[in-house]
Amino acid sequence: MPFVELETSLPAGRLPPGLAQELCAAAADILGKPAERVNVTVRSGLPMVVAGSAEPCAQLLVSSIGVVGSAEQNQRHSARFFDVLTAQLGLGPERIVIRFYPLEPWQIGKNRTVMTFL
C-alpha cells in the first residue's frame, strides 16, 4: 500500500488538471503495485526552500511496503519519478527532491486492523 505525497511551492492553478490521478497511475506502474492500493496527496502553494532557494520547487515522499527498501530499488524509482515530475510540473530536476521511506505492514492501519493481519 504505497503512499505518495507531493508538496510544492507551485500554486494550485499551475498544476495540471488530474495531477493526483496521474501520480497514482505513475506510482502504481513504477512501484509495481495495483492503482487501487496507491494513496496520493498533493499539497500546493507551500512556502518551500530547496537547495537554499525559494524558486519554484517540489518534494515527493514515497513510502511503501517492500519496494523502497534498497538503494538499487530507489535509484530506479527515482529516475522514473523524476521523469514524471519534471514533465507534469515543468520544473528542472534540480528543483525536485524525493524521499523514500520503507514501511512495515504493522505501520499501516486499515479496516480497523493493520496490514499484517489483512
UniProtKB/TrEMBL annotation:
E.C. numbers: 4.1.1.84
PROSITE patterns given in the database record: MIF
A GO CC term assigned to this protein in UniProt: extracellular space
InterPro entries cross-referenced by the UniProt entry: Macrophage_inhib_fac, Macrophage_inhib_fac_CS, Tautomerase/MIF_sf
GO biological-process terms attached to the record: melanin biosynthetic process
Subunit structure: Homotrimer.
Protein name: D-dopachrome decarboxylase
